[in-house]
Every structure is written in C-alpha cells, then in structure tokens.
Design goal:
Two copies of one chain form a homodimer. Chain A is an alpha+beta fold. Chain A is 30% helix and 25% strand. In chain A, strands 1-9-10-11-12-19-16-15-14 form a nine-stranded antiparallel sheet. In chain A, strands 8-7-13-18-17 form a five-stranded antiparallel sheet, with no helix packed on it. Chain A has a five-stranded antiparallel sheet with strand order 20-24-25-26-29. Chains A and B meet through β21, α13 and α14 of A and β21, α13 and α14 of B.
C-alpha cells in the first residue's frame, strides 16, 4: 500500500527507479493495450527479481479443469483462463557474453514513462558494466489504429563501452501462466519459421475435454537494425529470434533495433490463412513505418481523449487517477469487437480469468454509454443477448426456470470455479436487466428493448420468480441461501439488495411486457405480480435503516478502526470462517441501491445506511469505494465522498488493496468515473431527461467532462459554486439542476449558480 | 440401493454370484481386517469390471496437498490420505497362457462367504475354459492373534482341464489410489528381493512438504505349493512373485498354494530392522502353520463374540445387520494400539481419509466403553488428550482461544481440506468433552478426568467462550457462522444443537474444575458462567419445538416424500446451493441432543421435534438413522424406531445411501448398537446407576447382549413384555427399569415384567 510511483503527473505515469519490492505493481501500472492485445509493463531485458511476465490476446483462452479437495455438485467443470501469450516483447541484452539482469545491474540513471495522452511507453536508462557504460532507450506501443500491430524500438547509445554487445529478440512460446494450478504449459503445437523479412511463430492453445474451441495464434515480427554489426537467426525449441552483435569501441556509437509485430488468431481467420493474413498485416505496417504508426497512434488517442477526458483542476492525484482509469479502460475495451467484453484485469494480469463479469453491466456500462455512445453500449447488451440460451441452461443447473447469467464467462457458460459464487451470487442477474433499463432510459431508444432486451428481461424475471419461496407466516416471498455483493458473507437469507433487485427486475419486465406486447400467460403474470408485491424487504420505515441480511444485527458490530492494522487486508490475514462471521463488509451492498436507483431513496435513508455500514466496510473489493462515494455525494457528505473517490480513483496507483501486483482492477475503474458523474455531478436520467445535483469537493477548482446524450455531445463543468452545461453538438436541451429546470440551446452554454 | 447380497444369514455374508453392477458394493461388504491391516473383498484373480482394489495398513498415510480453484485462508494445507498398500492378495490365474478374467469368465458355479463367527473368507467356484473345466477354492484371513499375519490358500481342483495352468502370486507395489487427485503413486523407493524361503518387498510412502513422517513397510511372503509342476520367480518393476506352472491332464489333479504374509512398518520398528522383524514374524507364522493359525483365529473371534454379540431373535435381517456392524467395527479397531483410532472407512476404502473423526467420541465411544471395557475407552480418550496442544494451535488458526479439535486427523493436526467443515463444524469439539463425561459417569472412575480430562474440558470451554459473541439487544450469547451436524446447511447462525452443547461443555468444565480443584481466574470463571447462563437457545417453551437454526422456518418446508425418487440421494442429483437452501436435512441435528442427554428432554419434546424434523430428513449421512431411531424409542414410537434401526443396521448391506461401493461406513455402524442399547433397551447411566426403559420392536422375539459395567459383566435381554438382567461377573447391582428400582445379585438374574 502507498503510491507505487513516486511522482504524480496529470498525464503521465512516471517511474524514476527500479524498486524490486514494487516491481510487479509497477509492471501492472505500466501496462499497455489496444483492446485486441496488450501487455504488462515488463522490462525488455531479463529481470530476475519480483516479476510477472504477461502478454495477452483478447478472447484467446483455455478452460482449466476445476480440481477441488471435495467435489460438490455445482462446481463448474472448468475455470476459463486468460493465458500468457507467446513473448514478443523481450530483448535480451548481453555485454561481453554476459546477460544483463536489470535486477542486479548498475544503473546510474533510469527513467520510464507511459504517456497516457498517446498510449506510448518510453524508457531511458544508463547501464554501467565491467566493460563500460552505455545508454539504452526503448519505446513500445500497441497501435489502436492497426489493431494487430505492436511497435517497438530498442536503441543502445555507447558512452564508454569497449567490447561486444549482443541483443537477442524474437518470439518465444516458452511462457507459463503463473496461476496455472498444475504448472502445465498452455501453448502447444508450436511452429517457428524464418521468412525472408520476418520471423514467424505459431502456436495453439492446449487440448481440452470441454468442447471448447482451441485457438491458434500467428505472430510475425519484422526486426531490423541500423548501425553496424552482424545479425544471425536462431530457430529452436519453440523460439525464433534474431541475434544482433556489435563491438563497441568509442562513445557515440549506436545500435538501434526496430521491431514491428503482427498478431493474428483463428478468432478472425481460418487456420489455413493465418500465416498469410499475419504476413499481410505485418507488411502493411512495415510499409507505413514506425514513425507514421506512432503519429497515427498519437492522433487517435487525442481524438479519444477529446470525448472521454475528465479534467479536474486543483488536484493532480485525483486528476491522474481518473485519467489512468480511463486510459486503462479504453486500452482494454473500445467496443469495436462485439464478441469481446471487458475483462476484469484487461491485459494486465492473469487473475480472475474469464472475460465478462457483472462489473460490465453494473459499472462499466453507464460510462461507455455516456462516453463511447449508444452503439458500443448496444454491442455490450448484445453480448448478453446472444448468450441467453446458455443462461437458461445455467438456471436449469440449479433447478430453476428462466435465465441465470453466469458470474464469469467467455462464451456464455459459467467458467468460474466456486459454487458459492457462481450459484449463489444472484444479484448479477439484476445487473443484466439494469443495463437494458439504463440503455433505454438514457438513450430514449426503445428499439433494443423491444426487439432483444424484452426476452432477456422476461427470462430473468422468470428466474427470480422460481428462485423465491413463499413464507406463509410472514406472507412474504424470500430468497434463501444467497451470496451478495458483499462477498464476506456466504449463503445468507434475504440479502436486502438481492431481494430489492429481484422485485425491481420482475416489475420492470412486466412493465416492458406491457409496453412491447410480450405475451405472458395470465397465471405467470399474476404470480410474478404477487411476488413483486410481497417481496420481503427489511427496511425500518421510520429510520430508513436497511438490514443487509437476516441476522446481521446478531453479529458483533465493530468498526474497521478496531482491527489491528497488521491484520488488514482481512482476506490475507484472517481465516475465511472468521471473515464470514464478522460484521466486516467487503464491498458496497445495501449501498449499491443508492447508485442503481438514486431517485428512489431520500437523503435521510442514504445517510443512515451510509453511516451504519461504511465504518464496517473494509473495501477489499475494488468495486466498493466508488459506490460509497456516490452514496455520500447523494446526501451531501463531501468529505466522505472525496475520500472514497480518491480510494476508487487511485486504487491501483496507490495499491490500496495490496494486490495491484496481480494486475489492475480494470472494470472497477469505471467506478471512479461514476463517482464523478453520478456522484459529484449528481447526474440522473431516469425520468427521461438529464438532471444534476452537484456536490463538488472543496479542493477541486473545476471538473469538466463530456457526454454523449441522445444525439448530442454535451460538456459539463462544475465547481462548488456553479454548474455549467454546453451543447457542443446536437439539439437544444432541457435539463434540471438541483430540482429546477433549465434550457440550453444548440452550441450554447448555460451556467447556473449553486446555492 | 437394495440388498447387495441376495441371501440373508444370521452369521454369514453369502455371495452366490458375481454381478458387475454390485461388484464394488460386494467387495466393500466382504472386507476383512484385524485392526492392524485389512482389505476389501477383492477377488484373487483379475477382474476387469467394476472394482476398487484396496488393502490398507492402519496408521500408514500420506498428506496430499490441498488444491482448490480459489484459495481461501483457512483451507488446511493437506488432506491426510489412507493409501492403498502394496498388493499381496492377488493370484493371477492363466489357462493355456491366457489370463482368466472373472469379469468375462464362464463360471457354472460361484460361492463366497465371510464367516463372521471366525473372520475367515472362503470361496468356491467352477471355471469353464476352452481347455476344460476346473474348480478353484480360496480362503483368506487376517489373524487377530498374530496381527502382522495374513494367511491365504488357493487351490485348483481339476475336472476336465487339459493343458497348462499358471498361477502367479507375490507382492506388488504397482498400486494406485483411486482418490488421489492427480494420479500420483504414493509408494516410492520400492525394493524387491527373493530370499531363501520367501519374497520380500519394501516401499516407502512418498515424500511430502509438510514435515509428515514417511513410512516404510516391509512385506514378506512365504509361498509354497503342494502338487506337481514347476515354480519360477519373477522379480522386476516393483513386483516380486512366484509363478507356478502345471499341466493338467485328468480330473482329480490338484494344485494348492499356501501363502503366508507378514507386514511390518516403521510405525513399529526402526527402518534398519524392518526386514529382519518382518522375517521373524513370517518365520513364526510359518512354523505355526496355517491350520493352527486358523484355529487360533476361530477361537479368538469366538471369545470376542461371547462378550460383544447382540442376539436378536425373530428377525434375521436385523440380526445380520448388527452382527455385520460389530464384525466390521472390531475388525477395524480393537483398542490394542493406542496410537490408532477408528477410521471412518476402516480397511474397506480410501474415501474420507484421516483416522479420527468425532464419530469416535460421538458414536463409537459408548459402545466400546460397554463392550470392550474401560481400558480401551481410556485409550481412545488419551488419543485426544495427547493431541491437546495441536487442538490449541487449531483454535489459534481461527483467532480463538482454548482447544479446537480437528474434524479429521491422524496426528492431531487438521487433515481434511474444506474450510466450511474444518473451521465451522464446531459441535465436534463438544463430542470430545462428551466422551470424557461418558467415561466418568459410566465407569464411576474419576481418575481419568482428574488427571487428564479436566485439561481437555477447560480448553474446550475456553474455545466456546471465545467463539461466542454477545448480542446486546437480546442479552444473549450467540454462535454465528457455524456448520452443524446437518451438513446440508453451511455457515448458519445459532444452530441450536451447537449452542446447547457449548453451554453444556462450559457448565461441565466448570463443575469439574470445582470437583478437581482446577484453578481458574475469577474473571474467566464468571465470564464463562455468564455465557452458559445467557446462551441463546431457541426452544418454544410451550410446545417444546426447537428451531434448528435461525431462519429455518423461512425455508420452503416440504417432506422428503415430495422429492421425485430419481432425485435421491440429493447429494448426487442436486447442486450444492439447492441442497443448502432447501429444508432437507442430511442427518440428525436437533435430534442428537436426545441421544446425548436423554434424561433432559421430555417425551413430548422428543415427539414434537422428531415429528417435525424426521419427515424432512434424507438420512444421507450414515450417522443419521440410528439417532432418529433412539429419539423415536425415547417417546415410544416403536414403528419409527424399528424402521430407522433397520436403516442404520443394514445401511451398507442394503446400500441405502448408494455409496457402499466406496467402502463401509464403519464408525456410524456403532449407531446400530446404540439404537438397540440406548434406544430399544432405553439404557441410561447419567445418574450414576444403570436404568432401562425398554421399547422392543413387536417383531423381535428377544434381544440379548452383554455389557461391561463397573467391574461387572452383565447380560441383558428383553422383549416386548419383559426385561431381564443377569450379573455374569462382579458385584450385586441396583438398577432401574421404567423408573422403578431393582436389585440383582452376583451370579443371578432379575426378570421384570413390562406393563
């Protein structure tokens, strides 16, 4: 815990030294990606210290058989794993025949940055060896214009080196997954080739017993040097590479290697064409040249930022946090490939596996809807629509009707491996419905819901209806044996949020059925209506206090401040049973409702529950602080909202949960955007028009961001005293601020003083 | 489900044909053991059908690393596995060079029996081959007099065979565990030797990373034949054996092989002496000869039965059930080696691992106390006393004080691999205290408790005190996040039985502290007193209804009869979450209290709870029906008590839970004894003298059994009309029947008519 990089900057991630302790965290933070592929910020050279090597291709995965001590019916058969791709980023550097190891090398200077404005990583370092001193400069980026292309430059500038320097670089399939349970290699049938102007490696994901399609990837690399010296090719043992040798004698001599890589997979091309397609992609890129590719990259990222940026004045850490999060989210998913979703670790680590969590619908969806526009959002919705049949099968596995969307999936089938999560965390099903609702009320476009969404909504409602049971004495419907967003409880009864969302799902599905003339049998409809009407919801009418679940108040109720600091995070120090029986809350649970439906709860209700639950919340899920921040903004608690925003926005930059080393918390990063827009700006849109109730942190001079709203591009900015809306593109708009209505004309701006 | 063997017999287990579908079940039922080693009833010959090969040595085990999809703090590091020993029971039979496979062989006749009176298995079968017909007779037993010795005879009697017959037998380390997660072999460093008169194989359990001692076993076999033919020795690839060849020409010819095996391990001897000690054991046995060994075996089993038998007249299935259970229990554990405990599958299978479960204290202990006497019982108590320090460590792992005995163990350390069982099933800790209580009140001998037991009791009480939490509003102490005997619930609050036993443990520990002058700090004592006084116990004062756990009545309450039969057993058909949220009860939970403390509950309380819970109980634990039977006897419900006794007594014989194939439910077999003695005879001894309240099933003409009570050997017999007690050895006794006091003199009997 604590800032991983010493320096804070509004646009850059700057690393000024190599610290082994922080190295894996730094690698995570310096990750780059283009939605198609990406990699952790591993050094090009050997690093024998604390490192997690990782390069990943979107949508290329392997099912790994679930193995447990004691099998229980319900364990999904496999865990779907993000796998470490063949390595094409490494440059092995040797001086006088001895490989340089950055972990032990003498390094009088080191500087590395990721420029988030352009998506390029650059590094400069001086190395002191027995044979003399020299400088290394390197650069790399994954093109967001030419998706299959990664560009690298690696240059050695001599200072005082006298002797032979060797650089070996190519493509290697000799990689392992760190989280592979059994040390197996995931790449098989490796082929390597030297072609006229390039190296080629092709490999296939390992065979499996689950009828999961295997993927072949084809990787071409054009590697060229400027400067004297010789070059040989080595092609053996699953690795093909070029070795550049040069004897340095005087300062100022230079060896520069340029490497352009293309990656194609059988996700896009038939196996027989793979090599050719990759070759074509490579040739196109080589023809363009690295300088043009880089110029394109910069221009493309600038266009992105124009629409997506959130500018915060007066608070560089907060500013860096939100930019970092947007940078990583857009590097992970840009909506261009509708078969993909937003992987929870993006291209920054292996952990979690799977590609789609409910984080997408619950957290990322409203942000993409607003900054990337309705087409991208619709693509995310269709991803789930296309998996409706699988979700119905999934419901059948636990004896239920309707559709039960998986907790984690690549292809619609559950691919996480714990029954208590996959089969008891029901609330995710509501997030699927919520995204449809969001899309419809935000865009005003009913076509998606009419044509596709209604089927998903009805099946989800059916699931809830079958999963409830009726309690005669109380005359209520209940949900028994669930796990909730707060995963520090397991197998509980009547989690309020789950029950609340179940009721809402049924009501919304019935409402849409009416609106879009979906035929339901009268018996089913009336049964659903009864369930919605009689859902058990334990909220104290008078005080507004909501009971997280049955029996919660029987626990020993203690604040997080009572836990000795050395026992935090609890997940790393306490046995699981102790965590479960404690009152401590992993992440926003009751509180989530204030984000989903801010208009349905009073400030008093938000306050009483925030004040009860927040002190018991350890925020050991990255999904937590943003939601609490929104709740705090929702009743005007600026101090708490700000504190929790910082925790959300800088979660990985400051390694708040001591797990940034495993990769970044990509999907939850959307939470920091929500904390600004839904929280500080107080945006709501549920009644068919935009409304705001700003609650700007005192420290912030101004916040500005844009949003795509019903064919318009709006810019909003606010501080503690005023709120301003501009219509940059599109029609006039009527909107509300703090309950009063205003109008803003096309191309104009409207500034409102806040009382 | 259904009787595995077609024929029912009072003393024998009789198999009249080989049915592949039932083969693994039959193997389980035909298991033999002598407390030191044992084996499943595998055929000597090859059987390519449905089989589970298994020979086991008591106390020889291997820790197998726990591997799970998603690690949670609290998973024990390893699972302690019972391992399949090197094979010395097989006789490979070939005719004309072709190995006979009993799965496909033509077998005009087949007969096999285990004679429980003598502990000997015998088999006769006729085999028809292309080269003619012959008869095979085999016999085997594990000597209960000479523990390291197993004796086998294998004879071929020719009828019409014309051709060469080969028999290969020896010792082989090429065995696998079926439940080894990863297909690893558990035997390493195999040595094989031919000695002058014997074969020798020695092997070591595999290396491990847990500081668990490895064991070496040394197995000697003297194999000799009578009849003509030649014999060669084969010694290669982890196997050493003799091959007997004989060409048969005419009927009446005969080849008989006698094999005497000795097994020694480093549990008993230093590694360097192992071979010699095994050789000595073998020589002693060979010198005695198989006939004498068999005679000794018969005599020894007869002596056992004299004391232990329960004779039921008028109901052969019930009679066979109890004898089978006693036979298997005594074959598993006889109290001679105090380092051992009663493995839940004995020598009949691999499943469950570990050697000691709370089944020992909860179920087996009162039976051994009564039929094997106080010394054996004391040995079982010391087994736990010696592990007190480990139990304290175990409590520390979940942040608690005092002692928390493991769910499963070989050496005092937890060796099961599921946190929800090992860390949440608290009630087992009470069973440890209960056994001490039982011993003390049954024997009247306070020396164990004064010297040893008190330390265990106090540490257990400390555990409970630290595990409770105080609920201010209700002014009660509670136990949150537990799993209970009914393992079809997980992580529940205020399981009534757990709370009840916790209260009792604290009270009994304090009572003993007073009695034996154990010094407790006043603060600790008064805290414990407060907890015991304010323990939350949800029993309806008026009706006597006990709530199994908080929220139980919120479930959909259905009888087992509402489940479609094809969905039973639930554990094989329903997903785990569905099982958890249902009302269905795996095994006796609330009901257990009526067994532990029959005198504390009224008939009305027993009835109301039996009638509420029994219809929801699926009895998918073998530990269940016996306890329900006792509860039913406890309020005079003979019909239910009898039905549930049959289920308990014939659980494996009739494969009630569809899992007899994995091995027998050894420890729960004690339940059928308890159902007779504590149930039908209504024996109690909590007030310092014996009392009975018989409730004999109508069908039974008479039940007779013996018990060791305070230096006496008593015989009791009862039917529906009368109860009779005899003092076979020892002093006069005062006892109660149905609340009235009687006396019986030394050597006399007292018959009481029941109203």
């Amino acid at each position: 815990m604590g800032a991983v990089l010493e320096k804070v900057d509004a646009w850059k991630l700057i690393q000024e030294e190599i610290t082994d302790k922080n190295n894996r965290q730094t690698e995570s933070i310096m990750s780059l990606g283009n939605g198609y592929m990406g990699a952790r910020g591993n050094y090009e050279e050997k690093y024998s210290g604390n490192t997690l090597k990782g390069t990943y291709f979107a949508g290329v995965w392997v099912p790994d058989r679930t193995r447990v001590g004691w099998w229980k019916n319900g364990y999904p058969k496999y865990y779907g794993k993000v796998i470490n791709a063949p390595d094409f980023l490494s440059f092995s550097l040797s001086v006088g025949g001895k490989e340089v190891d950055l972990h032990s090398a003498d390094m009088p200077s080191f500087y590395r940055e990721v420029d988030m404005k352009s998506g390029v990583m650059r590094r400069e370092m001086t190395l002191e060896t027995e044979l003399g001193t020299f400088k290394v400069e390197s650069e790399r980026f994954f093109s967001i214009v030419e998706k299959p292309i990664c560009v690298m430059r690696y240059a050695v500038h001599n200072i005082s080196l006298q002797g032979e320097l060797t650089i070996k670089t190519g493509i290697s399939a000799n990689v392992f997954n760190t989280d592979a349970n059994y040390g197996e290699q995931f790449w098989k049938d490796v082929e390597t080739k030297e072609r006229k102007n390039s190296l080629y490696l092709s490999a296939m994901t390992k065979e499996n017993e689950f009828d999961i399609k295997r993927y072949r990837v084809g990787i071409h690399a054009a590697v060229s040097s400027t400067g004297e010296g010789n070059c040989t090719i080595q092609n053996e043992n699953g690795e093909v590479c070029k070795i550049f040798r040069r004897t340095f004698r005087t300062g100022g001599e230079c060896l520069t290697i340029e490497k352009i890589v293309s990656v194609v997979t059988t996700r896009d091309y038939p196996e027989a064409e793979l090599e050719k397609k990759g070759q074509e992609a490579l040739e196109g890129a080589v023809e363009k040249g690295s300088a043009l590719l880089e110029a394109e990259q910069k221009a493309a990222w600038e266009r992105r930022w124009e629409m997506c940026d959130v500018a915060i004045q007066g608070d560089i850490p907060a500013q860096q946090g939100i930019r970092f999060n947007l940078f990583q989210l857009l590097s992970t998913y840009d909506g261009e490939d509708e078969r993909l979703n937003i992987g929870p670790k993006g291209f920054t680590g292996e952990k979690y596996g799977g590609a789609a969590y409910y984080d997408t619908e619950g957290y990322c969806f409203p942000m993409y809807l607003s900054i990337a526009g309705p087409q991208v959002a619709r693509s995310l919705l269709l991803f789930r629509y296309n998996m409706l049949e699988r979700a119905k099968e999934n419901a059948g596995k636990i004896g239920m009707k309707g559709a039960f969307y998986p907790m984690v999936t690549f292809n619609g089938e559950e691919c996480h491996n714990e029954w208590e999560i996959t089969f008891e965390e029901l609330h995710r099903n509501a997030a699927m419905a919520y995204a449809i609702y969001c899309y419809t009320v935000y865009t005003g476009d009913e076509s998606y819901c009419r044509e596709y969404g209604i089927h998903v909504l009805i099946e989800i409602a059916r699931f809830w209806a079958s999963r409830c049971n009726y309690q005669t004495e109380k005359d209520k419907y209940m949900l028994i044996g669930v796990s909730a967003p707060n995963e520090y409880e397991n197998n509980i009864n009547n989690n309020w949020l789950t029950n609340y969302m179940a009721k809402w799902c049924i009501e919304y599905a019935l409402e849409c059925a009416d609106r879009y003339d979906y035929t339901l049998m009268e018996e089913e409809r009336s049964h659903m209506e009864e369930i919605a009407a009689k859902m058990y919801l334990n909220m104290d009418e008078e005080t507004g206090f909501i009971m997280q679940q049955d029996g919660f108040l029987d626990k020993e109720l203690l604040p997080v401040s009572s836990i000795p600091p050395e026992e935090l995070p609890l997940c790393k120090h306490w046995s699981w049973d102790r965590i479960l029986r404690s009152c401590f809350i992993k992440q926003a649970d009751v509180i989530l409702a204030f984000y989903y439906f801010p208009e349905r709860f009073t400030k008093k209700q938000k306050k009483v529950n925030f004040e009860f639950y927040e002190p018991m919340t350890v925020h050991e899920s990255s999904l937590s602080p943003s939601m609490y921040s929104i709740a705090a903004s929702g009743y005007g608690n600026k101090e708490a909202a700000y504190r929790l925003y910082q925790r959300a926005a800088r979660l990985d930059l400051d390694d708040m949960n001591c797990d940034t080393e495993d990769g970044l918390h990509i999907t939850s990063m959307a939470g920091s955007w929500l904390a600004i827009v839904n929280g500080f700006a107080g945006m709501q849109y549920h009644n068919g028009y935009l409304s705001f109730e700003p609650c700007c942190p005192e420290k912030w001079e101004c916040v500005t961001c844009r949003m795509n709203y019903r064919g318009r591009i709006l810019s909003i900015s606010f501080d503690t005293d005023r709120f301003c809306l501009r219509v940059l593109e599109g029609d006039d708009i009527v909107f509300q601020v703090c309950g009063r209505e205003y109008e803003c004309r096309q191309g104009c701006e409207k500034t409102i003083a806040l009382s």
